[in-house]
Fold:
Amino acid sequence: MAMTVTLKVWRQAGPTAAGRFETYTTNHVHPDMSFLEMLDVVNEEIIKAGKDPIAFDSDCREGICGSCGLVIDGLAHGPDRGATTCQVHMRRFRNGDTITVEPFRAKAFPVIKDLVVDRSAFDRIIAAGGYVSINAGGAPDGNSIPVAKDVADLSMDNAQCIGCGACAAACKNAAAHLFTSAKIAHLGLLPQGAPERSRRAIRMVEQMDAEGFGSCSNEGECEAVCPKEISIASIARMNRDYVKAAAGK
Amino acid sequence: MTLDSRIPSGPIAEKWDRRKFENKLVNPANRRKHEIIVVGTGLAGASAAASLGELGYKVKLFGIHDSPRRAHSIAAQGGINAAKNYRNDGDSIYRLFYDTVKGGDYRAREANVFRLAQMSVLIIDQCVAQGVPFAREYGGLLDNRSFGGAQVSRTFYARGQTGQQLLLGAYQSLMRQVDAGTVTMYQRREMLDLVVVNGQARGIVCRNLITGELESHGANAVLLCTGGYGTVFYLSTNAVNSNVTAAWRAHKRGAYFANPCFTQIHPTCIPVSGDHQSKLTLMSESLRNDGRVWVPRNQGDRRPADQIPESDRDYYLERRYPSFGNLVPRDVASRAAKSVCDEGRGVGDTGLSVYLDFADAIKRLGAETIKGRYGNLFDMYKRITDEDPYKIPMRIYPAVHYTMGGLWVDYDLMSTVPGLFVLGEANFSDHGANRLGASALMQGLADGYFVAPYTVANYLAGASMPAVASEHDAFKEAKATAQARIDKVLSVKGNRTIRDFHRAVGAICWDHVGMARNEQGLQGAIGEIRQLRDEFWQNVLVTGEKNNLNPALDYAGRVADYMEFAELLALDALERRESCGGHFREEFQTPDGEALRKDDDYSYVAAWEFQGVGARPALHKEELVFDEVHPSQRSYK
Structure:
């Protein structure tokens, strides 16, 4: 039941080098393969031909680490909703298909090589305030502050963000609002995160802007590609927090 | 060198307090003068780096990923144990300690396990305070569930993504320290050597994976938090970049490797479907709370599951282990699955899987409740297999998941190289021959938040060490060694790819050092591994550049180390002529097929000292003393 697919893959030797699409055809695709396993097969063929394999990031290959991220036929993470690139399987494609594979593109995600981009801007946004300021050692008993189940659940919905960057890649403004607001919502909803709610909103939003991410124009592309299906309602929450905090400054 | 585990004296419940009091302290004003290298950014590494940063040390953190949040702790699903006794069901620190020593089949160090159980309650408090959104009950208090190997509900969880949430908690604390300037991050760096000066760990050589440049970094202490070696089997539930390289290179510089043969095969994984697979996917064992494991009663029964009547089904775990049923520990569940498949009663196209059936639970609790508990796991299963577990039973089979063995450490988590500490899965200390579910997260965080900050301080306060510049000969030598290895692997230009070699070494390990092992198979495996290693250096094919991002080259270095490590794995399994926990030697079993320990001969930690590639390592034994939990044959009947 082997399939044949043709790939048009973005190859770029380095951050400043010019990129181009290269075409690869492989006959050794099985419908049960994941998309990345298919790329492994293509890379084996490239290596055997003595050439430089396609660089792409991946690690857990079960949709949770956030390492992988490809634009497949124009869609960040490909055709499946609520899934990362590594969770897409070749049974989603037909024998003979031509598939275009590109990196996540955003001004704040410079290409390192081929399909690998630099997403360290996300780390810096978290460093600006995506935490609760407590040191190890002094925490009160875990049950000392009850948290209503629906609040904890909504917080968890946002905490599920894997930091993959698909939201920014899908946005025509390359905005990081969904990513940033997910963290602001996750922490701001909980009593433990409440004391720093204003400071967090101000600092994270300012960092997001400083990194070169764009503005939000409410089109919802981010929500549509988010592998964890995080809601853009969080962006509204972030805006509220930010406006309130900025007004109070 | 004799192994000194440096266990504090006194009653077990007082040992850690005693050690903390005896420990020397570092004055807060002096802490920033001490540089500490942390390698690895998973639960152990992130929590250690954050905590040491909070204390004011100058921390340098290294990770192979683009961000610390990618480390494989992120993938842990089920939960984290803590002896909170919030359920009022009779749990206590002592019971968690007891269960863990017993679950480890009496091959763990009692004092370490007791401390782990003590720390477990602090971890939950710490994580809640960080904003980890643990599952809650309607009253707002923390929810718990039960897990394999325990009869109390002590497992805290955040849906099926507990590892993710705990790692993000640690990562956030870490990023706060990065912002505060106490921690400097070096991502996309791979540690290639440990630098030892005057017998002390004084730094590392690492490769910048983007530029290919080798970098030297000096420090006063080095913490290895680089995880386990499960990917030696090629197929495992580990992330594809998980590797033994940092630990192995430290081993070659003098750190003893302990109990490598203690590997955990997790019972509930999605079965292998073909040789294209790059990894296996775990289904959290929390599924065994509601799922019932069965196979057809009769060999060769190929009927679809729904056409096999109750009378023709064998719920073999419930039958063999009536008191624990489907919740027996992992090693027991895995072996039982293997034995029914060996009898020809396995299901699926390959015959290498068993059913995990939720039909009864759905009937009893409703599909909505089951969805609430396991929805994301069911979705994950469907995505991979194209089958709907709400309608047809899941098929599962054991897969390599965790490695209990690791670098030998004393009670303070220090290896045989002074100043080199080893935390989390990378060390050997707490799980003996088998790890209980929901204990890995507990150990990684206990080591990082609550143990290393005290013991590293004690080392720094007590050790005298000269300033060492990164131009020191030891750094130059380590750098030259690392460079030579990279150049060598690129220069072979043979015919066989790295992946092919990795598959080959993995197949040898799975066939002979997997779920069942025997003398002849292990001896054969050692020969095969040596042959494969020779072939590797004659015939490996690595393309691409060394001065640019080249994941194939990174991979080559890791597989090259597995070519050496695999031999130690097999040797340790060969030399341990008993069965215990995850190490099952076919020659040593009870009449009903359970693991048969030989306490008189093997109640020790096997710590191996490197003597050269291909040379027999020297065995050092740490005798295990059981003052509290009397070793007996584990019974889950």
About this structure: The longest strand of chain B covers residues 394-403. The domain at 266-400 of chain B is CATH 3.90.700.10 (Flavocytochrome C3; Chain A, domain 1). Chain B touches chain A through 84 residues (CB under 8 Å).
